[in-house]
Structures are given as C-alpha cells and as structure tokens.
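Final paragraph of the annual report: two paired records, presented back to back.
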Amino acid sequence: MKTPRRRRLEAKTDYKARLALLKSEKPRIVIRKTNRHIIVQIVKSEIAQDKVLVGNTSKVLLSEGLPSEFSGSLKSLGAAYLTGFLVGKQAIKLGINEAILDAGMNINIKNSRIYAALKGAIDAGLKVPHNEKVLPPIESIKSEKISKIFDKIVGGKS
C-alpha cells in the first residue's frame, strides 16, 4: 500500500492538480484566503522552485485609502476583487499577460471570493482561462464599505 505524502495528509497540496498546472509552463495566479485576508500572487515555476513575480494581500487596501474602521472587510468579495485587480495591473506592467488559476485546496463555489479575485485580475487585463458563469456580478462585489476606494482603484471601469 502506498503511503500518502505529508502535505496531502495535511490537506495542503493536491499533487495531481499541481502537476497539471506545472506542465502548462505558464505563470499561475495563486489565490488563497485566510480568516482575515485574501492573498493573490503571480507565481512562475523554475527548476523545482516557485518564484513569486507579483503578490499582494488585501491589507494593501488600507494604504490605498480604505478607512481603518473597515479593516474587518478585508476578506469580503469587494476586497478580493480589488486585490486581484491590483495584482493584475502589476502583472501587466511586468509584461505578464496570461496566467492559469491555481485555487489550491479551496472548494470551487460559484460567486466566491476566489472567483472575485480572479474577476479583478481579468478586469485588469490579465488573460486567464475561465468560465464566465462562476464569476460574481459586479453588483455583489461593490459593497458600501469598499465603494469608497473602488472608483479610485478601478477608475472608470465597472
């Protein structure tokens, strides 16, 4: 009987999915969610190592103008969208035009925070293969708390 790898037992890595992502040889847009924040990174795999090319957490929204009393909203759909948008803009500036989604061990749920961050990166100009049905509508992303900085970050696009 084969012994499962440690990271698989800890529910941290799906090796079969990771191998498929690495075989594509494209940069990955890695989206992770914690209890307080959303983390979005563009990662390129090089000889047995992953190199983070661009990355941000939703904490950066506080420095972008989100009032500190809304710091509890850094895991919302709007915060995920804006974090993905900022990372997408940074990736485009570096010349990264396409990537593939790496959602890790997160469960695929339609209109979730993972897909809100993906929608932000796509709206910033990054090309990521996806199904339009899973992306949340802009009305549900643009909440009252986030709307204070939404137009500042996104600009005329909405």
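The closing record of the year follows.
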Amino acid sequence: MNTCSPRDDFVTGQDGLRLHVREWGPRASAALPVVCLPGLARTTADFETLAQALAADIRTRRRVLAVDSRGRGKSEYDRNPTNYSLAAELADLLAVLTATSIAKAVFIGTSRGGILTMLLGPARPTAIAGCVLNDIGPVIKPTGLARIKGYVGKLPEPESFEAAADGLARLFGTQFPKLTRRDWLAFAQRTFKQAGERIVPDYDPQLATILEQVDVENPLPPLWKELDSLAGSPMMVIRGSNSDILSAATVAAMRERRSQLEVLEVPDQGHAPLLAEPETIQRIAEFVAACDAREGP
C-alpha cells in the first residue's frame, strides 16, 4: 500500500461524537508527526496538497494527520449546537491525540485551528514540538469577524459546483485576486458537497450559532497568555497580505514577544492563505524539519 495515499479513520470524541481523521504517511515514522487543524467552517480538504507533500518527502516519510472538528466535513454533526465551542473542540482534539497515539507533534492551525493550537499550550504543553499559525494570532480584527459572521451558515445552495465557484469568487475575490477559474472551482469543491440532488456547504449550518454571541463592536479577549504558553516551542506565523483577521501590527507585536518567531507573508491572499503554493509548502517543510532537528535523534 502507498503510505502517502490518504487514509480515513474515525475517533470517538470526549462525549461520544464520531470525529473524522484523515492521515498520510507511515504511522511508524521516526520523524515528528504533523497535525493539521482547519478553520471555523473548513475541513481536512484544505490540507490535501500540503499534507501529501510533507508525507511524501523522501528524507522523512512523515506521518501527517488532519482533523475535522465536530460538525464539519465527515465528522458527526452535534444535535446541540452549543457544543460547537472551543472548549468542546479542544477536548475533542485531546481525544484524537490520545486515540492516534500522538504524544508530540508539530501543529498547523488555520484560523480557528490556530486558536485551538494556542489553547492546547496550557492544556497539554508537552504535545507541541512546534506550531504554525495560519493567519491567526492573539488579536482578531473585528472587520474580519463581521465578514465571517455574514456568511457562515448563510450561503445559498448553488445549482452546480460551477455556480458555487462563481459565488465564492464574488465573496472572496478581493482577498484572493490572483485565483484562476480552476482555483475557484477547486475552492468550491473543498467548501461544498453533493447531498443527493443538492449541493450544500460541507459543514453544519448550525455553526452560525457560534457567531451569534460575537459583538463585532467589542474586541474579543486577546490570547496573549495562551500564546506565551507556547514560548518553549518553535513558532511560525503565516499571514495573507490581504488578511482582515490578522493585522501586520499584531504580527509585529508577536515578534516583539518572540524574537525567534518565523514570519511568512503570502502575497495576493487574504484569510486564510491556501498553503498550496510550492514556496509556502517549502517554508513549512523547512520549519517542520527544524523542529525535528531540535528534538534530536
């Protein structure tokens, strides 16, 4: 069997919900595993290109996992939408790490997945050998929150994936001005799924309840303490140059607290960078390899 071909597995979460885990690479690799955590309404599909590249690297043959949070992708939807909370999702992540025998890993978290990574610091600091925060930091810009609040759980059902691509291009085109028609169609196929004769978002629409309590006029509590809990681990932050979630000022403030912080700004992309370009993948691979070297043999 080709160990770089993806494998799908399911883990029982902390309250019995079925959680989907997609995995690449050999489970017995001596290299540090990588755990990928998607954004709020995103799925493991966002990491296909990156995960395949990291797992196929002939120097390491690394194990890579991506996790669908409850209510997203192939994970079970929760009948109680109040459970779509960071506390429940952190408990789910801990259950996944235990079930998959991940004692220590490099975590790559996009947006909400990056928040979960920061929360994992105080909860299980020994699990983090390094972390990549994709377009997220301790301070979240309210303009971006308002935009996300405006569409999560409210996307109309398109008649086709081509129509879905058109809708996504209208919604995100100013943040991703260089994406081609093929790119938008691929984005649509990562965002929607076929459900019988319907094409629907690949997440529970009840995720919108997460955002009902968000007051975009009042900033969310900053996560500087959680960021500082990761002080013992290498960190890389990726920012889309057009991001309306992570500001350049927040990245600068992060760098002031962490002189060794590695920063990558992706041009012509917004929230969140796609992590699919060769240059971005190469930088992430180099960062992960450096975490390996730091851990030693």
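The chain has one domain: 7-143+221-295. This concludes the annual technical report; the extension proposal builds directly on these records.
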